Every structure is written in structure tokens, then in C-alpha cells.
Amino acid sequence: MKGDAARLARYTAELEALARDQGLDYYPVEFETVPTSFMMEVAVYGLPVRMPHWSFGVRYIYQLVQHRMGHSRLFEVVFPGNPGRAYLAANNSVEENTLVVAHVLGHADFSKHNLLFQRSQEEVGYHIVEQAAAHARQIAAAIEAHGQARVEAVLDAALALEQHIDVHQGLRRPRYEDLPAEEAPAPPADPFRDRFAQLPGEAPPEPPPRRRGLPAIPPSPEYDLLWFIAHYAPDMEPWERDIFLAVRSESFYFYPVFACQIMNEGWACHWHARLLREADFLPHALYLDAIKAHSDVVRPYASGQQVSLAINPYHLGFVLWEKIIEEHGLEHAFQLRREEDDFSFVRNHLDEALARELDLFRYVQRPSGTITVEEPDIHALREAILAPKFNFGAPRVAATAIETDGTLVLTHDHRADGRGLDPEHARKVLDYLQPVWRRPIRLETVDEHLRELTIQRR
Known about the structure:
The chain has 458 residues and is of the alpha/beta class. It has two domains: 2-114 and 260-349, no CATH class; 128-170 and 214-258 and 395-457, no CATH class. Helix content is 53%, strand content 10%. The strands form three sheets. The chain has a four-stranded mixed sheet with strand order 6-7-8-9, covered by helices on one side. Helix 5 (115-124) runs antiparallel to helix 10. The longest helix is centred in the middle third of the chain and has 22 residues, at 238-259. The protein is globular and about 75 Å long. 33% of the residues are buried.
């Protein structure tokens, strides 16, 4: 085993030198080989150390079952930052981990230069692992002071809303009453926001209208529910607010990973294949085994000849980047890597010819279980691929009013979502939220048949 570790360390150093010669530029990456059980914990929690909550245990059990049934395998887990961190599975072969190192270098280059990642790193900080550890210590102290049950109830509410942030507003923003009452100022110049406003994708909410006199709370629909509740819940205690803001901070960190998955994984796959091809220092047998692992990662299907009804982001991203680089060159690819996210990437570069080549199609699954393939339409196909990514994968729900008795009014923008809410799931979220808000809550939505539906908790 020591000999394998020494070989991998030597290959890692040589791959890093080759990557920089090929034009990649990234913050230092700290590689660490860890047991499979630790890898699964990191993948489930999202970070090596994170706040304790029962939901992570549920996810861990699911991941463990999938792994033991052969449906899931973890090769690596990467955390952008300065330095970046990469965990490699100890049960990987040297050949597999050599490929993983090259893959990680692609991720490191992407996260340093992509504008969405840059903004996240600048706002949240380049040391998210240490920050998450601080959040975990903060919550452990709250458990000591207020008891497990009370702290868990607040975490239930915060984690139920972890996707309900507004990335267009940014991590640090003033309370409404900290703004002049006469007129809300224009937001400060932000080159990132200006650049992304010109790209196809999820449009930011309309700016609030200018108001005179005392503004309403909220002055316009507020989609950052974690921020809003942390600052405007009538009786929220400081330690509860700190938990909501800690969850929100970590959500801002995770958003670029979610919004750039196809681009990011495809970029890393292109570069691990490219670096392995150019790595003449690798033994021939090792190269062949590493390329076999590459084909397993970027295959379009779930396993063997089984046709998958879900997109493999590694495969789609890899094919798109290969096409872009072949047709437009590497410098153009570097520019796209900086400026785009999955919305613009898929809409701008997945054309009809490539969709046919990849056998991509839309389908509808009937309640009976019957699956029907829809007529080919490239625009509808692109939107079907991107639909799960809108609004961080969550229903678009806004806080729209606080009534005189303190009732919080939530409104689901079902027209933007194109669907209703699952009533049982929505009721469960309100059950978590009401003890934190400590006043009535009313959610205006529609059911699965698009009939108006009001859900209340008092």
C-alpha cells in the first residue's frame, strides 16, 4: 500500500505540471485518500464536517444501500476553495485514482475561473470547510444551552428551506428598514450580475417598485425565505437566527455546484481524458485501465445495455465540450468556462444534430406506468433537461405579506414553476416552520390539477 501511495503521489505531481503546461490555472489542491465510509459521509453531508441533523442520516442509509447494491460508487469528492480539497476513495485502484486526480484538476480550474463560482467564493469565503466546522461547533453549543429537541426543531425548519435563497440579492444584504424610507436605492454596480443578466437562463425577480412613506414588509415578493425569516420572524431568538443564517451561507456555497453541474463535470471529464492522453510518463497498462474507468464515468446509460431515462451530466457535458473545442478551439472554451452556467451552456450548444446523435428524447410517464416518447423538439428538449435546475431545484415560493396579526403569507408562483405543490409535503414544511415563526402561516398555491389551494398553520 505504501508503494501505491508513493506512485500516486509521483503521478499527481507530474499531472499537475502537465495541467499547467496545457493551460489550466487553479488554486492549490490538497489530496487525501480516505476510507469509503468517510467518502459516503462527506458526499451525504456535502462537507467533511457539518451541522448534525437526522436528515443526513437518512441520506447516508440510502447512499449505503445504493452502494452495496452496486448502483452507486464514489470515486472522489471535491470542495472548491483556496486551497481546494479533494478526497479520494482508498478502495480505488492506483489507475482509478490517477484518473481522479486529473479529473479534480479540471474541477479546480473551473471553480477558480467560472464567474458564478468566483462570486460564491468571494461572498462565502475560500475556506468553506473551516466555516462549516465553525457552524457545527456553534450548533453543538446551542444544543448544550437549549437542548437537543429545540435545536433540532430549528434545524428542521431551516433545512426544509435550504434551497429557498435568492442568489441575485447576494449573501450580505441590508434589512428593509435599514434602507431610506422615501425611496429604495438602485443596487450597486455588480459586473457579475450585469454579465449574467445578458445570458439566457433564470431571470432575477423584478426590482421592487419605488415607494414613499413607510414600506410594507416585504416591499415586494421576497424569495430568500431563509434571510426573510431570520430577520423578520416576530419572536426569533438570536441563536435561532444564527442557525438560519448558517444554513443560508452554506446554501450560497452549494448553489454554483448545482447550477453548473453539466458544465463542470463535462469540463473535468474533458481534462482528465486530455491529460491522460498527454501523460507519457504513465505506464501503458495504467493508462489503459484509467481510460476504462473514464468510459465508465462518461457512458450515456445507467448500466450495461439498460437505457437510462435520466441524463448523465458527465456524458452530456463531456460531449458538448468536445464538440465546442473541436469546432471553436480551446481559447473559446476557456471563455465559455468563465462566462456561462448550465442554462446558457445547454441552450446555446445542444443542437438538433447532437441531440439525435446522443439519442436524447423527452418522455411522459402516465399514472399507469406507461412511458410515451414525445415528438422531437429541440427547444422543449433543452427545457426538459434544465427544468430540474430552475430556482435551485425548489418550488418558487415567496413571502408576500405579514398581516396585522403577524400571519406570514407565502405565495407559490406556480405559473413560473408550471406545476402545483404536493400538498402533503407543503403541509410538512409548514409544520416545521410555524414553531419558528410563532404566528399563523398561510400558503397560497395550487394542487396537482392546478386548482387553487390554501394551506394554513396556526
